[in-house]
Each structure stands twice: as structure tokens, then as C-alpha cells.
Amino acid sequence: MNELNPRGTLLIAGGGGFIGGWMALEALKRGFASVRSVDVKPIDEWYQVHADADNVVLDLRNPDDCRRAVQGTDHVINLAADMGGMGYIEAHRAKCMISVLINTNLLCAAKDAGIGRYFYASSACVYNVDKQRDADVTPLKEEDAYPAMPEDGYGWEKLFSERMCRHFCEDFGLQTRVARYHNVYGPHGTWDGGREKAPAAVCRKVAAAKLSGNHEIEIWGDGGQTRTFMYIDDCVFGTLMLTASDFTEPINIGSAELVTVNQLVDIVESIAGVKLRRNYILDAPKGVRGRSSDNTLIRKVFGWEPKISLEEGLEKTYRWIYDQIAARGRSPEAAKV
User: Fold this and answer.
1) 179 within some domain
2) How buried is residue 207: exposed, middle or buried, by Cβ count under 10 Å (0-12/13-18/19+)?
3) Do residue 134 and residue 165 come from a single domain?
4) DSSP code per residue over 87-125
5) pLDDT in tens, 134-179
6) Tally of domains within the chain
7) Alpha-carbon 136 to chain mean position
């Protein structure tokens, strides 16, 4: 990782978010001379705050704030976006698309500042929805993003921003790297309030049911939807590996361990030592029927793919969420998966 460990500063845009907090911690562990975490949220709302980092509140939708953020930095990891689980992105398509301002203005600022490497966090939501209508889905290869038919709102913003990164590299020589994340989860993530994703939502509901004694769980859809879920440690490692490399095309960073939502619940129930009655909400937002990461390219280029099993990652995530609920002294009202 020498390319990303200069005597300078690594900027983490969205550093107050879930992935950003873990990214900052890993960068500090690896000995970066300085790590600057930037987020629009007040610092007391950040998911993790690291005293050794330069923690700054800026609105990266604003060009002037982007210029301030990159000043004196060597590399940029852009994780900043308005996003959440399926219920959130389906209900806030325009808000999710406004994130295009972040990447646009940050790319311009990075180009003008002579940034060495610029990483952009894209999403599996860029993939053509027609290829994801069956639970027994064929794993998605990078070329399956075209012809373009991504998930409306959030997916279109991600796909457009990928193209911006490509053309800033071609036209201006800015060394951009793009990863398509597949459902990142882990401790210190969103677990209630409507923005949480399925692993955290299931962990919360199972923990709440166990603590309350009300052994029921509400599931969006029929539980047959399939997904792959990537633990945060694999996400951070893969991101830094890609950013340090010479590979310039978008690439999947995701687990290939495909499960149904029902199987996801099975695993968390086993961890919790409880069995719940399932109530299926068939008219709730469900997203695509099936989605899986094809890791052929990342194995070929890097000889690596995400390795942490879903059971191992959910064990850590469930224990953390259980502790959060217990610390509140109450079981939160069930939100929907």
C-alpha cells in the first residue's frame, strides 16, 4: 500500500458515516501521516469519531467546501452519499440523486488540487434490473451495468458518477478508482430509523423480540428475495487494495455467499438462540428479486475476494446491535426490513 501511504493526508469524504468511520480507523492503523474525515453531520452524530484524525464538518455538495476539504491532501476516498436501505432509497429518489453534486464538485476540486488517487464508492444498484428479476439470479458481472437500467434514483446517480470518474481520468489524468459495493454491514452501522439495511434490520428485530419476549418478526416481501452481504472489514480492505492499484475500471467488491432473506433470519435466530413467528408484508418495498456479486474479475486481478462468512459477520453485528438496544433499556418499535 505504499502508493497510499505518503507523508501527507488521506481525505475520507463521508468519514462520519458507517463505512467512513471504519475506513478512518484502518487508515490510522496503517500509519497514514494524517487522516482527514469530512462529513456534513455534526460531529456528535458521527458513527465513529477518532481523536487522531482531523475531523471536519463540511457540506461537500458545496464547491467551496470541497476545495477546503482537499486542501493539502494527497488522496481522496469518496464514500459520501445520501442513502439507506431499500425502503429509504425507493421513497427518496430525488434526494439520493442530489448526491451527484458531491462527486461532481469533489472531482473538480481533486483535479485542481493535483490529487494522486481518487476512489469513488459506487453500488450494485447500478446493475440492469432486468438481470435481477429471479431469486435464482446469475451473479452480476461488471459488464452487466450496460445497457443501462439501474435502480431508479440512487442507481442512476451512482452510474452517472462512475462515468464522471472515468472521464476525469481520461480527460484530466486524475487517477480514479471505482468499486461497486454489495450490501455492506457490520457494527457501528445504522440499525434503526428507516435507513438501515436488511442485516441490521433483522438483527434489531431479533434482538428486540428476544428482549421483549414478543417472539414475532416482520419481514418485507415473502422472504424469498436473494442477496449477498459483505462484512465491513472486507469492504475496507478491498477499497484500500483497489485504490492503491493500477486497475482503473469499475469492479465488484462484494461477497459471493448468496442467501434468501429467510435464510438471513435463520442465521440471526441461531445466533440469538430464539425462534420467531414470521409475518410477511407482501406490499412493502423489496427491491430486485435477486442480486449476487460475480467475483471472477476481482479474483483474476487481485487474487482476492471478500472472505468473511455471513455467519461470522452477523455474529459480531448482532451482538453489537443487541447491546445498543439493551443499553437503551427498551425494545424499539419494530420498523420494517
Assistant:
1) yes
2) buried
3) yes
4) HHHHH-HHHHHTTHHHHHHHHHHHHHHT-SEEEEEEEGG
5) 989 899 999 999 999 998 899 999 999 999 999 999 999 999 999 9
6) 2
7) 23
Query: Quick one: 53 and 180 in the same domain?
Result: yes
Query: What is the Rg, in whole angstroms, of the alpha carbon atoms belonging to the chain?
Result: 19
76 shares its domain with 192: no
Show the domain range for 271: 186-228+257-294+308-328
Does residue 193 share a domain with residue 46? no
Which pLDDT value is given to residue 115?
Answer: 96
Largest CA-CA distance found in the chain, in angstroms, rounded: 60
Rounded to two decimals, the pTM is 0.93
Residue labelled with grid coordinates 487481485: 302
Asked if pLDDT for residue 63 goes beyond 90, the answer is yes
What lies within 8 Å, CB to CB, of 327 at 6+ separation is: none
Strand partners, 72: none
Share of the chain above pLDDT 90, in %: 84
- pLDDT of residue 334 exceeding 90, the answer is no
Type of residue found at 89: I
In a domain, 171, yes or no: yes
Cα of 39 vs its chain's centroid, Å: 15
Residue 2, domain member (yes or no): no
User: Per the structure block, which three cell numbers stand in for 244?
Assistant: 492503491
**Closest alpha carbon to 202 in 134, 260, 151:** 260
111 & 89 share domain: yes
What nine digits make up the cell of 314?
Answer: 452477523
Any idea which residues carry the catalytic annotation?
154
196 with 245, same domain? no
